[in-house]
Write a structure and sequence with these properties.
By secondary structure, this protein is mainly α. It has six helices and no strands. The chain starts with 7 loop residues before the first helix and ends with a helix.
Length: about 100
Amino acid sequence: MALPTLTPEQRAEALKKAAAARTARKELRESIARGDETIPSVLDRAKSDSIVGKTKVADLLKSLPGYGPAKVTALLEQTGIDASRRAAGLGDRQRQALIDALK
């Protein structure tokens, strides 16, 4: 699939939009790390909030204190969730299995 040809203005706008999305995802991960947000509350709004929905589940879990790459990989394997899965792509059973595993 060929990339669309963008005018310089369209390119600048797309870059600005992408940077804003990255900043919003970073703030989300930081709020999880501080304890202001919990994984269940974040996953509940994954379908309605595009920033949360497009964030990878592994990145959300790595934001938790005490969860590094090895622990997150083990947790995802235990719950049957692919490492590249995004929050909005989780099914009801997967979301519930993840929440139960975190308790």
